[in-house]
Design brief:
The complex is a heterodimer of chains A (287) and B (260). Chain A has 287 residues and is of the alpha/beta class. Chain A has helices at 8-14, 33-41, 55-62, 83-90, 101-113, 128-131, 186-192, 248-257, 263-272, 277-285; strands spanning 5-6, 20-23, 47-51, 66-71, 95-98, 117-120, 136-143, 149-156, 160-171, 176-177, 193-204, 227-230. Chain B has a single domain, classed as Glutaconate Coenzyme A-transferase, CATH 3.40.1080.10. The chains are: A alpha/beta (287), B alpha/beta (260).
Chain lengths: 287, 260
């Protein structure tokens, strides 16, 4: 068996300053936060982050790890606006590339399919073209009804240096299982990336994969994965259903800290500087 | 509007003492945006639009599919009738078989919507909002309505800072082929119902909610509205409809979202 298990620190050691990193999950759901926390503890910097963004983006911004965010939204969901992302934007600390959500899906899909762009109607007439002067349209070679050649947005491939996603269960080879109601875009993130990392609530034997859930839950296959991290509770404070919901009290404390002087430092020393992931999980279990 | 027993509007609030509240009126107005949509996906965003869509489904629009809960199509009782994870949502959006009710940080007279950021400098907004979300894809692909819980000149503005969802002037500039699926159906606010039934698709005051004057709406709007000689009052839901709303929204979320 090709054993791909590693630690969060191993993942971070393979990341390099300036990389473009895709982060799976959606808003405050099933984010690979244990790897995000390892990045927060590291010396990494100048990252470009691609994410259906939640506290992953906010914490990386707060810690000064981010140069550019490529996003369609950043939200804690239970709190509409991500406080540290918002602060970084309003202070002009980061640059951004904004996209429509569907364009983001197509950009990841284009990278996964190794084509330079995919066409869509989404984005026509909007200020996305003003904000991103590199964005282009493409003219259909096929006449529409009435003979006109339709102009569409050419969404460029969103090629990722690395991607990390969190799943409920995985084996050591990188087969991942999602017991959640929504797989989000995790397969696309893995498909669009050169280096692919999976974190999981439960590391199991391959023979145990179908002990929970049917074959439809086998969302990630091992050819899409280079490293597997056992990370029980690794999505906290975001949800990992059915294991745990999002930790709303924690997210409120996190969001509230952004409104205080030295709020990030206080939050960071209380929750993040306690040590490695195991220490964080102990702290969450017994604060 | 065609009278319909299921949504029959009484001329005055019921005499039961309390009568319909502003949240009931807004919920009924938000239900109306889906009238005639048929078997499509109703995707209301926000508490009151969700109640409105439930009311439409429970009364005059039984064929609607409701996205009222993440990843699932559900009935008004919450029973799951289909699976619709986010990745499938784009199949729905791009097929056109959807009507979304979005919010707006800013909205202008042609229905251009800003969800992304307030301020003139895109590199350093004075207020970062959510982002473009799905607004570009929604507005170019299928009917869109807006719910504005607090009608004010800061939201209904002369010019939006960032165009995320496109309005009628932008759609017209794209030409009839590119914009053939564009439709901004209606704007419901806590004060009024607005639409674009004017020759050049400028926003028009369609009705004012009970207790609200035309002057109130004009004062709360940051651009000149098209206003006809006789502005009707938004229909008030009858007792039966209010009772139904109480069943569909037992926690009264519709009342928490608007000023009384």
């Amino acid at each position: 068996m090709n054993d791909k298990t590693m630690t969060e620190e191993d993942v971070v050691h393979r990341l390099v300053d300036g990389m473009t990193i895709g982060i799976g999950g959606w808003g405050s759901r099933r984010k690979p936060m244990s790897v995000v926390r390892a990045i927060l503890r590291s010396e990494l910097r100048d990252l470009t982050v691609v994410s259906f963004g939640g506290p992953d983006v906010g914490m990386l911004c707060a810690a000064g790890k981010v140069r550019t965010v490529i996003f369609a939204f950043v939200s804690l969901e239970v709190i509409a606006l991500e406080p540290y992302f918002r602060r970084a934007r309003e202070r002009g600390e980061i640059t951004v590339r904004e996209l429509d959500e569907g364009m983001m899906v197509l950009g990841l899909q284009a990278a996964a399919w190794r084509v330079p762009f995919l066409p869509t109607r989404a984005g026509l007439g909007t200020d996305l073209f003003r904000l991103d002067p590199t964005l282009r349209t493409v003219t259909s070679p096929y006449p529409a009804a009435g003979g006109q050649l339709e102009e569409l947005v050419a969404v460029p491939a969103l090629e990722l240096d690395a991607a990390v996603v969190h799943v409920n269960r995985a084996d050591r080879q990188g087969n991942g299982q999602l017991l959640d109601a929504d797989p989000f875009f995790d397969q696309l993130f893995l498909g669009a990336a050169r280096d692919r990392y999976l974190t999981c609530d439960a590391l199991i034997e391959p023979t145990e994969l179908l002990a929970e859930g049917d074959f439809r839950t086998l969302a990630v296959s091992r050819h899409l994965v280079d490293g597997v991290v056992s990370a029980p509770g690794g999505a906290h404070p975001t949800s990992c259903e059915p294991s745990h919901p999002r930790d709303i009290a924690f997210l409120r404390e996190y969001a509230g800290s952004a409104g205080q002087d030295d709020g990030w430092e206080t939050f960071r020393s209380r929750w993040l500087d306690v040590g490695p992931e195991s220490a964080y999980q102990q702290k969450v279990a017994a604060p | 509007m065609t009278p319909d027993t299921s949504t029959a509007a009484a001329a005055v609030p019921s005499s039961a003492g309390e009568g319909p509240r502003r949240g009931d009126v807004c919920a009924a107005a938000l239900a109306e945006v889906f009238r005639g949509d048929g078997e499509i996906i109703a995707n209301p965003i926000g508490a009151l639009p969700k109640v409105g869509a439930r009311l439409a489904r429970a009364t005059f629009a039984p064929l609607l599919l409701l996205i009222d809960r993440d990843a699932f199509f559900v009935g008004t009782d919450g029973d799951i009738e289909g699976w619709n994870p986010y990745r499938r949502m784009f199949d729905v959006v791009w097929s056109g078989r959807r009507h979304v009710v979005m919010g707006a940080g800013q909205l202008d007279r042609y229905g251009n919507q800003n969800l992304s950021a307030i301020g003139a400098d895109p590199a350093r907004p004075t207020r970062q909002l959510l982002g473009f979300r799905g607004a570009p894809g929604n507005t170019i692909n299928h009917p869109t309505s807006y719910w504005i819980p607090r009608h004010s000149p800061r939201v209904l503005v002369e010019r939006v800072d960032v165009v995320c969802g496109i309005g009628y002037d932008r759609a017209a500039a794209l030409g009839p082929v590119a914009a053939r699926f564009h439709e901004i159906r209606r704007v419901v606010t806590d004060l009024a119902v607005l639409d674009f039934a004017t020759p050049d698709h400028r926003m028009r005051l369609a009705s004012v909610h009970p207790g609200v004057s035309v002057a109130d709406v004009v004062a709360a709007t940051g651009f000149e509205l098209a206003i006809g000689p006789d502005v009707p009052t938004t229909p008030v839901p009858d007792d039966e409809t209010v009772a139904l709303l109480n069943r569909l929204d037992p926690d009264g979320t519709r009342h928490a979202e608007v000023r009384q």
